[in-house]
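Sequence and structure are no longer studied apart. To make this concrete, we show below a single chain and its fold as tokens.
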Amino acid sequence: MKRYFLIFYSLLAVLGLSSCDLDDDSPNFHFTALQITSVELPESFDLNGTYEVKVTYVRPDGCTFFEGFDFVKEDVTVRNVVAVGSVRTDQACTAAIEEEEATFIFVVLFDEPYTFRFWQGTEDGMDEYFEVEVPVN
């Protein structure tokens, strides 16, 4: 009897999932990098310390929303930081450019100075960054 219930519920699940249309050919958003204009970092880090880093970025229009940060480890203590936004493509947008703030948490694991490279945009097809080096006590 249990076997029939298992088969019945399995069949019901397969039929239920196959009736859903999950294949939408036209996504209503895409991701984009947001220009970082300034950052607040301490003058130095303590080894094994945890720090909140405040970043100011540009929101170019009303259809772009902050999603988080992308961190790329270039070397042991070198980090490229990009603010990531999603852009809605299914609505009319306001053209207002706004500066907004977001934070991320950083944990110091190495006793060497850290170099942060914050993305500012592209020029002639090349990514532009501003660098901030923070020594570790």
User: Anything to note?
Assistant: Confidence is low (pLDDT under 50) at residues 2-9. The helical segments are 2-18.
